[in-house]
């Protein structure tokens, strides 16, 4: 098997490495500052766990490398401006938006987008960072240097958030997981749940949207599409050209995890449809120290990233996958007292979904 180099050595690179191991695929997650000579990239397929990167000796080398999967697609998706333009050009539904380039636009923005607008940095935002929620009057508090660097989006009164994780290979074949239902709090993903039998109508809508995007880009690998549910249709929130937090449940809830699927796609290995036979839950561990008590629950799979624990930092996740919904609910009930109080509402949201 060809080795794989992953640009970035955070948790996604780590989980790609773990997924490659049983298949005999050596995955090297590499930090941006690594010495190019120390990285075996010459004979590897290259992928990334991040969407943009500064120029370093290593990234300059990789930018020229032919075996860098999706090399020229990253800049189109890492910047919200060309990403939104791509979605519009394909006629796919997304939250109405405009480029925010001048403070004098505000009266017209409120008139066209409504009186609740979300300003998002074009580049570099994540986990809700680099965003401002603006109602008339708040705009004066925005930093002045953001003009030109942000888009303004209509705040969508959604009934729920879902994401679709899928993959496309070199020949253009696409496979998808069932939609994942996601709960975000303060812009950060707290919990996800997926079911083997998803609402056919939304699933089909999402698959049509994501395949159109992947085909247009001739994308190879796993891509995630985050959506808002409004009535019975989907609006695209954003796209991620990589494995995604909302797909972490697939490690324990699908016959092929999103990490293995990504490796298969970029190495052009067989890529059958991943089977999902039971409901799966993922709980993000955010700024919380490890607690061995979690391991006393037989349905809990702990994925710990071995990162320094800091507030608002994703440091691990818990996966639970089981065919009996009542057993799952029972485990979630037992988990609540084993986690800090801020987890309670997220776990209750999951329990509600299992009803
Ligand atoms: P990620 O960590 O997924 O990359 P992010 O920080 O890049 O997230 P978004 O996904 O754009 O940012 O926004 C984070 C969350 O904020 C969304 O999941 C959603 O809950 C809320 N949000 C974002 N845009 C809107 C919108 N237009 N209307 C309503 N809520 C929104
Ligand atoms: Mg997001």
TrEMBL record:
Homodimer. Pathway: Purine metabolism; IMP biosynthesis via de novo pathway; 5-amino-1-(5-phospho-D-ribosyl)imidazole-4-carboxylate from 5-amino-1-(5-phospho-D-ribosyl)imidazole (N5-CAIR route): step 1/2. It comes from Photorhabdus thracensis. It comes from the Bacteria. This is N5-carboxyaminoimidazole ribonucleotide synthase. The keyword ATP-binding applies. HAMAP family: PurK (MF_01928). InterPro entries: ATP-grasp, ATP-grasp_carboxylate-amine, ATP_grasp_subdomain_1, PreATP-grasp_dom_sf, PurK, PurK_C, Rudment_hybrid_motif. One of its GO terms (cellular component) is cytosol. One of its GO terms (biological process) is 'de novo' IMP biosynthetic process.
């Amino acid at each position: 098997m060809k080795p794989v180099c992953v640009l970035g050595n955070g948790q996604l690179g780590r989980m790609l490495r773990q997924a490659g191991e049983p298949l005999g695929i050596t995955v090297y997650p590499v930090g941006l500052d690594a010495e190019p000579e120390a990285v075996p990239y010459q004979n590897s397929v290259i992928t990334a766990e991040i969407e943009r990167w500064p120029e370093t000796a290593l990234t300059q080398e990789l930018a020229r490398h032919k075996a860098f999967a999706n090399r020229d697609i990253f800049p189109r998706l890492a910047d919200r401006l060309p990403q939104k333009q791509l979605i519009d050009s394909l006629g796919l539904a997304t939250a109405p938006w405009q480029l925010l380039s001048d403070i004098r636009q505000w009266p017209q923005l409120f008139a066209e987008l409504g009186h609740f607008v979300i300003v998002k940095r074009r580049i570099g935002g994540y986990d809700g960072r680099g965003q401002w929620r603006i109602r008339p009057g708040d705009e004066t508090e925005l930093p002045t240097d953001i003009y030109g660097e942000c888009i303004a989006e209509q705040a969508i009164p959604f009934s729920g958030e879902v994401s679709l994780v899928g993959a496309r290979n070199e020949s253009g074949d696409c496979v998808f997981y069932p939609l994942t239902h996601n709960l975000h709090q303060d812009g950060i993903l707290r919990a996800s749940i997926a079911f083997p039998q998803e609402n056919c109508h939304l699933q089909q809508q999402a698959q049509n949207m994501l395949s159109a995007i992947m085909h247009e880009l001739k994308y190879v690998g796993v891509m995630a599409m985050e959506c808002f549910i409004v009535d019975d249709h989907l609006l695209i929130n954003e796209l991620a050209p990589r494995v995604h937090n909302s797909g972490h449940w697939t490690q324990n809830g699908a016959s092929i995890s999103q990490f293995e699927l990504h490796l298969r796609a970029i190495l052009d290995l067989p890529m059958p449809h991943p089977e999902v036979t039971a409901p799966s839950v993922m709980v993000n561990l955010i700024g919380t120290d490890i607690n061995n008590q979690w391991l006393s629950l037989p349905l809990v799979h702990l994925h710990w990233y071995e990162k320094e624990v800091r507030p608002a930092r994703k440091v691990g996740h818990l996966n639970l996958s089981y065919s009996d919904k009542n057993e799952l609910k029972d485990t979630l009930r037992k988990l609540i007292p084993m986690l800090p109080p801020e987890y309670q509402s997220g776990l209750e949201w999951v329990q509600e979904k299992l009803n």
